[in-house]
From TrEMBL:
This is Polyribonucleotide nucleotidyltransferase. Keywords: Cytoplasm, Magnesium, Metal-binding, Nucleotidyltransferase, RNA-binding, Transferase. The keyword Transcription regulation does not apply. Residues 698-722 are annotated as: Disordered. It catalyses: RNA(n+1) + phosphate = RNA(n) + a ribonucleoside 5'-diphosphate. Residues 630-699 form the S1 motif domain. It is found in: Cytoplasm. It comes from Ilyomonas limi. GO terms for molecular function: 3'-5'-RNA exonuclease activity; magnesium ion binding; polyribonucleotide nucleotidyltransferase activity; RNA binding. One of its GO terms (biological process) is mRNA catabolic process. Mg(2+) binds at residues 491, 497.
């Protein structure tokens, strides 16, 4: 058997950065396999699809997994088993980016299981692989016969020092004030996700246009590779059985009833119950002769009818399922400090969506370790999002956070992060959003509740951040409706759903999924402006609730004191084997963190007890203080000797107060004059440069009496002349 010769194409990212796409060398038994190479970065992507759908399959089972091999960066995993385990959050988020871009591109009647596996096999420390993952997946589909409708790609578009750049390096990203991952076909945008430091809506539109131009170059390269391989068509597949006569029966039976319920402005569960009643009546109307397939098809057609009727109602009547106008935000209710024990808390309710969010302030020891194959760093700010089943009135197994929870939490975290203080803020901050009720974007409720809770905790964020979920419904005749603050049902109905977070001044985060062809930038601009108005409406209510962050942390939150010391004193504070710093922490009940920053050391002292924190601060100050001759100190008598007293005048610094320096009077001993534990003021009068011993004086702080002056005898009434 002769081995096939690999085929490859390349394209330029700009600035001479060439990207190579190759197929035919690795993983040749997959339906499609490619490697993407830029610099030392190599990604292997494979796609495999079953030839037939599973019996009774009613949904499209697509799975996308992106994984980074630690060997790609010459590292061994730090887990107990020393092998790659479940996907970490970064890998899950990258998998979601690819999944969301690919899923709408499959035919609606294609129900065969598809698996996409994307693996980083060689890592380049400066190249961010997540921006190349979707290109790899799409190229693997392009060289296969799996019936995906279009070729796609994805780029990172960042603004660095005022200039937009496609797929910048890791180092360049440190100076970026906009960071978006954008996916598109040749004609249409498909997915947007990212963050910005309060960019304008027009800045976002410009980024989308520039990214789309770069994506078209990548799509052309994939088309060239496809032609080189010789793929000319797509495989046939078994389509689900259809029954047009039954579809007509469903429509005539249920259309008017569905419309009546849709117009009734019912609550989520009332509306759902009414729709289920009609569906059950429909199934009963089919008669006893109806088989399982007919019943299954009838339910499917009823779902399609419901989708069509509600969309038409919104487009024609300009009214929504809950009776709101298109641009109306649901009723808002919010409060801060509903929980007495957390360091900060807020309850945010918008319609039938509710988030109870808490903030916990920790020390640098609580920082979150974030690892990828190429990097390992710690984060001082992180957010966890929980979506228990009762929030939608359901019963489900309670397992670890799923991909949805990771994705929604990441969007909220990225949005709030834009307002967080920098490294000068010593606290580690953990935000936890527990969704107690959900009908419409709970991730946006998390952003709002998180902003309120951070201000309640006294975290010095300068502005509130809010978020709103938007929807878009379009029709072939050009008619469209932009919806503000969408319901869960409207999310399912829409052609685009997008979430925009930000302050009054600009956008902080975006997540957008587009399912419609030919969306014009003018419609996009209109949607973003409507989102801005909705965001401002929510922000006004948030500022009424708490207008600014609290000036101080809660009484039970850890206090934080900071001291900057010379770099040379860091070792003295820590002590041999950490002995000194451990003693300070034990004696004062504090947690102390020392970080070297340039030529200085930042000493951060944490304690829920203000007295303990101040005691530790003084202790550290004493260690780093340089005793100055002629300086006056508050001292504590440690021991009494025949020749004087040893006193501690700075933490861990003792000197001799000689008996001759206690008083101007001649003393035979110190009995009745000083005792251990006495607090006295002393003056440093000298330092022995040979021994380093300190000479202290108490008498130097009192005026010297004139011993030559005759003592004036006191005259009492007894010796007064009679």
């Amino acid at each position: 058997m002769m081995l096939t010769q690999p085929k490859s194409v390349s394209f330029d990212l700009g600035g001479g950065r060439e990207v190579f796409i190759e197929t035919g060398k690795l993983a040749r038994q997959a339906d499609g396999a490619v490697t993407i190479r830029q610099g030392k970065n190599i990604i292997l992507a494979t796609v495999v699809a079953n030839k037939e759908p599973k019996e009774g399959q009613s949904f499209f089972p697509l799975s996308v997994d992106y994984q980074e091999k630690f060997a790609s960066a010459g590292r061994i995993p730090g887990s107990f088993f020393k092998r790659e385990a479940r996907l970490n959050d970064y890998e899950v988020l990258t998998s979601r980016l690819v999944d969301r871009a690919l899923r709408p591109l499959f035919p609606e009647d294609y129900l065969c299981e598809v698996q996409v596996l994307i693996t980083l096999v060689s890592s380049d420390e400066e190249i961010l692989p997540d921006a190349l993952a979707c290109l790899a997946a799409s190229a693997a589909f392009a060289v296969s016969d799996i019936p995906i409708k279009e070729i796609i790609s994805e780029v990172r578009l960042a603004r660095i020092d005022g200039e937009f750049k496609v797929n910048p390096t890791r180092q360049e990203m440190e100076n970026a004030d906009m960071d978006f991952i954008i996916a598109a076909t040749e004609k249409n945008l498909m997915m947007v996700e990212g963050e910005a430091k309060e960019c304008s809506e027009e800045d976002l539109v410009k980024a989308l246009e520039l990214a789309h131009n770069a994506i078209r170059v990548q799509i052309k390269a994939q088309q060239q590779l496809r032609e080189l391989v010789g793929i000319t068509g797509k495989r046939d597949y078994t389509k689900p059985e259809e029954n047009e006569a039954l579809r007509d029966v469903v429509k005539s039976f249920a259309k008017d009833k569905v419309y009546a319920i849709a117009k009734s402005a019912l609550s989520k569960h009332e509306r759902s119950d009414k729709f289920h009643e009609i569906r059950d009546e429909l199934i009963d109307s089919l008669g006893e002769d109806a088989d399982d397939l007919q019943k299954q098809l009838a339910k499917k057609y009823f779902g399609e009818l419901e989708w069509e009727v509600v969309r038409t109602m919104i487009l024609e009547d300009r009214v929504r399922l809950d009776g709101r106008t298109l641009d109306q935000v649901r009723p808002l209710a919010m409060e801060v400090d509903p929980l007495p024990t957390p360091h900060g808390s807020a309850l945010f309710t918008r319609g039938e969506t509710q988030s109870l969010t808490t903030v916990t302030l920790g020390t640098p020891l609580d920082e979150l370790l974030i690892e990828t194959a190429a990097t390992s760093h710690e984060s001082k700010f992180f957010l966890h999002y929980n979506f228990p089943p009762f929030s939608t009135g359901e019963i489900k197994m309670m397992r670890g956070p799923g991909r949805r929870e990771v994705g929604h939490g990441n969007l909220a975290m990225r949005s709030l992060k834009q307002m967080m203080p920098g490294n000068e803020y010593a606290y580690t901050v953990r935000v936890v959003s527990d969704i107690l009720e959900s009908n419409g974007s709970s991730s946006m409720a998390t952003v709002c509740a998180g902003s309120l809770a951070l201000m309640d905790a006294g975290v010095p964020i300068p502005k509130h951040v809010s978020g709103v979920a938007m929807g878009l419904i379009t029709r072939e005749d050009g008619k469209y409706a932009i919806l503000t603050d969408i319901l869960g049902d409207e999310d399912h109905l829409g052609d685009m759903d997008f979430k925009v977070t930000g302050t009054r001044e600009g956008i902080c985060g975006v997540q957008m999924d587009i399912k419609v062809d030919g969306l014009s930038m003018e419609v996009m601009r209109e949607a973003l402006e409507q989102a801005r108005i909705g965001r401002l409406h929510i922000l006004d209510a948030m500022y009424e609730c708490i207008p600014a962050h609290r000036e101080d942390v809660k009484p039970h939150a850890p206090r934080m004191l900071k001291l900057i010391i010379d770099k040379e004193f860091i070792g003295a504070v820590i002590g041999p084997g950490g002995k000194i710093i451990q003693e300070i922490q034990k004696e004062t009940g504090t947690t102390i963190n020392i970080e070297e920053v340039g030529n200085f050391g930042e000493v951060s002292i944490f304690s829920s007890d203000k007295t303990g924190a101040e005691k530790a601060l003084q202790w550290v100050k004493g260690i780093v203080a340089v005793p100055q001759v002629d300086e006056v100190y508050e001292a504590t008598v440690k021991s009494i000797q025949p020749y004087g007293a040893f006193v501690e005048f700075l933490p861990k610094k003792e000197g001799l107060l000689h008996i001759s320096e206690v008083s101007w009077k001649r003393l035979e001993n110190l009995e009745g004059v000083l005792k251990e534990g006495d607090k006295i003021k002393v003056k440093l009068i000298g330092i022995d440069h040979k021994t380093g011993k300190f000479k202290l004086s108490r008498k130097a702080l009192t005026p010297k009496p004139d011993f030559n002056k005759p003592r004036q005898e006191s005259r009492s009434s007894d010796n007064q002349p009679q």
